[in-house]
Amino acid sequence: MELETVAKVLKELGHPVRLKVYKEITKAGYTGIPVGDIQAKVNIPASTLTHHISALVSAKLVKQRRVGRVLFCAIEYGALEAVIEYLTSECCINEQPTDQ
């Protein structure tokens, strides 16, 4: 994963409302959650929610699918896992041995 991609993901998750939206979508599991249900849980205007969901989709953290007239959001679990892998991939490589 590229540094710029990781930075974008972290930026989008760094916004309190987006993080709250992301957590609600995560709670829904793999099947996802209707956008209307997210709105009811986070209690923000539809246009504001659309803006925040668009940012999460743009960062590839969330995917959307339409079932009839209902728009569902679901987490792209691989995206967050890739960010975590990027952040931890070089863990302890500069650690100095300690004398015991």
UniProtKB/TrEMBL annotation:
Record PROSITE patterns: HTH_ARSR_2
Pfam family, one: HTH_20
GO molecular function terms listed in the Swiss-Prot or TrEMBL record: DNA binding; DNA-binding transcription factor activity
Entry keyword set: DNA-binding, Transcription, Transcription regulation
All copies of domain HTH arsR-type, residue ranges: 1-95
Name of the protein in question: ArsR family transcriptional regulator
